[in-house]
Amino acid sequence: MRLFLLTLSLFISLAAFAQQDRYQFDSTEQAIRFEELTKELRCPKCQNQNIADSDAVVAKDLRERVLALVKDGKSKDEVIDYMIDRYGYFVHYDPPVTPATLILWVLPVLIVIIGFGFIVIRQRKASVKQTWSDADEVMLNKLIKQNKRQEQS
Fold it and tell me: What's residue 95's pLDDT?
């Protein structure tokens, strides 16, 4: 039993010391830039995780590419532009405002406003009261008298 517990504790301690994706940087500035970028870039496969937290193979490849670009001295914006050029705006959590994104945000609001306006106009037309003239009253009385004569016959 002691041998089993010793072996189990050995495996647990080895698992605790195992580190994934240990990177070496030339300066702390590079390490900070790498960390910011990996938290700001989205994994194309996972779609709801950044590449720092994702275990997908593509995220590991992206981390490696970000590492190479950071070590080459590229700025944060240059790395983001490179990733957007390669993977599209989806890879960045904060995509820029473009005509396409404006349409995606403005079109639903316009549809709701136009629909509300249509309902209001239709309600106003339906609620317009017709005026009842004296000629209409005379015509109604005439029709009632005709109806009574037909019932009597």
Answer: 73
DSSP for 27-85 reads SHHHHHHHHHHHHHBBPTTTSSSBTTT--SHHHHHHHHHHHHHHHTT--HHHHHHHHHH
Around 140, how many Cα atoms within 13 Å sit in the side-chain half-sphere? 6
**49: helix, coil or strand?**
coil
- DSSP bridge partners of 42: 50
Q: Which of 41, 74, 77, 76 is nearest to 59 (CA)?
A: 41
The rounded distance, in Å, linking the Cα atoms of 108 and 127 is 29
Find the length of the chain.
153
Mean pLDDT across the stretch 101-119?
92
